[in-house]
């Protein structure tokens, strides 16, 4: 019989008193196989639909249930949504700067009328037009026959002023407008510029921005109790690459590389340093990762414990005969951990992730939203299984609400109760084999999911990192991958600066003008991060 036509039969009901341990195991195995068979049928149907589309045929129709009985409107029974509690109507014109005032008198004013003031009506406008300046540097000949010439103002660095440059940078990095469209805009505005010059303005001579971006991570790690981390795809020069995000409510920092391994993550945390350090924490990591004892012993006996760069470290491993990929990887991870801690990384820092293995170092906490998704994606194949999923999800979200309450009101007694509730919830046995496996997987991560009981200040989810990285993903979808190293570096730099400005309440438009002009009235973002922490109560 074809797999497409295989029907999933219902297992016979066996009374509880007649179930032996062997029968229970057989029933659970059969249930799991049924779930796998149903999943394969869905995959096969999806492939059949794709083949049909490629052949120009119609795939199997997806007929959704009717919504006629759900009523119309926006979920509020068709009523106009109310304002949020406590919200006030915004006074639109209170802070507007008036650039021009025009007085309008009525037509046909009767004789004997008296003037009684004005009724103001404010109209906002935006002026976009070329504004070209000719600097005429005077040339003088001195009595000795030499010539002296006037000098350009210091802020003039080329044939394009800072307002035009910041407009291009703002359009590209903040508004996600592509280079060709920016070029078309400028031509239509009447600006005499080439597409190559637009590209140079976007990518070249950005050292001051790169330096400030690097300091953001240093300051963020220095003052933070926790950070969110995540990564996403970032193609470069036609090859798959990755962009790693590190941040919290104070800052956002992005860096693109060709890897998303733990070695890569530790290298990013190490910052500007290049050394590899063998210390106590390095060897603890090697022991935890079960590096063979003879390899650890060989590294322990090395007289040199600090290696200047990757080349020196690789030479040391080769001299010891450590050539296996796994052994090199674990030893390198340990040496990088030693370097990160040597340069002041806070060992009490909590790293919050979505359970990607490369982030599982130091104090690691997991996102509850991602943990719940392993259950949410399950689809039961009978009413009993579907109800089991609903019951477990309800219990999980009730437990999540209790965790939120505990964060605001930490209590040793409540902490113990929550630990017991966790055990009861995630050791539950249901009629759904796939659900049981999902519960087991979550239970294995108990220490990382319940770290909040020891550190109530940390978030329960990793949504902040996903929200921060969404802007990077949108830019990638619009403009595609990067083609040059300078282009990739600029994308990371301005993504970091833009997001950090937003978190600190700084206008990115004003920030660009301040840095391009060299005024530096706006403090360095790293200083703003430190000031925000020092100024916060408690």
Topology record:
Elements: H1 21-54, E1 139-141, E2 147-149, H2 162-174, H3 179-189, H4 195-203, H5 207-223, E3 226-233, E4 242-247, E5 252-257, H6 262-270, E6 276-277, H7 280-288, H8 293-300, E7 306-307, H9 310-319, H10 325-342, E8 350-353, E9 363-366, H11 368-376, H12 383-408, H13 412-426, H14 433-444, H15 446-449, H16 463-479, H17 485-504, H18 508-517, H19 525-535
Parallel strand pairs: 3-8, 8-9
Antiparallel strand pairs: 1-2, 3-4, 4-5, 6-7
Helix pairs in contact: 2-18, 5-17, 5-19, 6-10, 7-10, 11-12, 12-13, 13-14, 17-19
How would you portray this structure in words?
With 538 residues, the chain is an alpha/beta fold. Among the domains are: 153-201; 219-359, no CATH class; 368-453, no CATH class. It contains 19 helices and nine strands. It has helices spanning 21-54, 162-174, 179-189, 195-203, 207-223, 262-270, 280-288, 293-300, 310-319, 325-342, 368-376, 383-408, 412-426, 433-444, 446-449, 463-479, 485-504, 508-517, 525-535, and strands at 139-141, 147-149, 226-233, 242-247, 252-257, 276-277, 306-307, 350-353, 363-366. Strands 5-4-3-8-9 form a five-stranded mixed beta sheet, sandwiched between helices. The chain is globular and about 110 Å long. The N and C termini lie far apart (70 Å). The relative contact order is 0.10.
